[in-house]
Amino acid sequence: MGVGRMQYILLFAMSIHAVMQGMDITFLTVLPTLADCDYHLTEFEKAMTSSVFFIGVVIGAFSFGLLGDHKGRNRALLFATAWTVYASFLTILANSYAWLLVFRFLVGIGIGGFSLRNALMFEFLPTSFRVKSAFIILISWAFGTILEIPILLIPHVKWQYIMAINHVGHFAVISCLLYLPESPRYLLKQSLHRDAKLCLLRIAQVNGACLPAGELVTEDEKAAILEADCPFPNQKVRTKYKDSLAGLFQTRILRTTTILLNIIWFSLFFAEYGMYFFSAELLKKLHGHVDPTDPPAPPMNMTAEFLSNMSLSVANTVVDRVFFPPPDSNTSLLSAAFVNSTASTFTTTTMADGFNATNFTMDPVYHCVPLTSKDYLSLFATFSGAFPGILFFFWVMDIVGRRTAIAINCAAACALIGGLMVPHLTRLPLTILLALLRAVLTAAFKILLVYTPEVYPTAIRSRGIGFHVAVGRIGAVVTPFVAQVLLSQSMVGGEFVYLAFCALSGVLALLLPIETKGRPLPD
Q: Which side of the chain, N or C, has fewer Cβ within a 10 Å radius?
């Protein structure tokens, strides 16, 4: 039947899906900083705002992966998308740190099911269109990561509302999924002959094409026919995979592939999402923000002679408007950050002849450390590095193969992280290094997303993707504590951890037993 209207509707829906997911990833990068200015968080609490989200993603990836194998790819992805929209709008009600964690956990569960997008597309689209469609999805995802930056710069918009705005486009995705049929491959796997044929007839009708001649048979029936015709009765023609996670370890090649992929998924998730978080941390150090490891500033003493030059009304205005602004004050993000970062305690001595300050002491007790407009522009440039990475390495992976392309990207990531260890980098070289690092890590991770569904048979494909995404998200759960807690104590030590995981991913990619370049999707 080729590629027609039905496939383009699916591609449009999944592209919007990818844009929304990219926007949420960028928001996740700056959420600890935004929440810090509202809730006065410690470094550990800031890391938890990200980790609790990924804990939800781990649960969602595994749960929706099982649901996709038992109830269908389309239905499971539809449920995951609706869940995410509902949970994101609940976040508007987050008026405390505890509720923020609860709602981000719920959003994470829904986004965990988005891994089914690859299984649905790869089973719905012909082999000749597989790489092109994956390329479009990845470009859409990269576009979403930079689209979020202008939204974050909109003045007077609370971050709770931005979180809901990030998922408005999913209403279009839900409409398309309700229109699209189930994956024909899934229906055949479930021995639903009639449903599979009706599905193919509908696709052919919408595309203005005709079904090819022949009868639909299930995988088991096909295996029985081949075994009956096989001249070697003791030789198995096709393996029947177990309907559980054990199916991922059923043969020696599958067992080796699954173990290696688990380590690679964990390492690349750890490295890529860590890059998001430590990008923000490195940029904040450029413009003199207070490092929590620095010694406190010495107290500032002002004599009565100095303060006597100001009238009492001016002094009261400064104290009231700067140090203690009214609750309904409409301050911008930057002005609010200035108020929080200069919040202090001070003591005065009142004498019989009126207000005469003999001692004025400022002791830093809390520092809200927001991102400035320059930081957001640097993040925009950094995240834009995904585009050349995707363009170049998608071309390369069809020449050198998936495994070698992942290894090349990981080696380049190690070199770039080594460049970040150079002390006293200015904004321009730091932004360039981060942009290049973003390019190679994104390319490695997205090639892995292409490789994983290509290597597993249909019967265990959805379960395999969900399992690896769940394991990978454990790396994403851990990485905020390295990027936001360890890096605040030892910048070089934290960067070395990321370098080690990138090197590990590259070596293991070369050890994978199956190369899927030019290989038909296994049944």
A: C
Distance, CA of 57 to CA of 69 (rounded, Å)? 18
What pLDDT, in 10s, does the model give residues 348-374? Answer: 333 334 434 334 333 344 556 677 788
Q: How far apart are CA 217 and CA 196, in angstroms?
A: 10
First to last CA, the chain: 19
Helix (H) or strand (E) holding 256: helix 252-284
Main-chain dihedrals φ then ψ at residue 5, nearest 5 degrees: -60, -40
CB 71 within 8 A of CB 65: no
Please state, in angstroms and as integers, the Cα–Cα distance from residue 381 to each residue in 162, 299, 393, following that order: 21, 39, 19
Amino acid at 282: L
d(CA 354, CA 105): 55
Residues sharing a CB contact under 8 Å with residue 311, sequence separation 6 or more, in sequence order: none
Paired tokens of 214 = 């022949």
**Beta-carbon contacts of residue 341 (< 8 Å; ≥ 6 apart):** 290, 367, 368, 369
Rounded distance, CA 27 to CA 167, Å?
A: 12
**If DSSP states are collapsed to H, E and C, what string results for 340-378?**
HHCCCCCCCCEECCEECCCCCCCCCCCCCCCCCHHHHHH
- The model's pLDDT over 267-293, given as tens digits with 9 standing for 90+, comes to 998 998 888 887 877 777 765 544 444
What pTM was estimated for this model as a whole? 0.69
The DSSP bridge partners found for residue 350 are 355
Helices 193-207 and 5-39 cross at an angle (nearest 10°) of: 100
* Residue corresponding to tokens 């300050």: 357
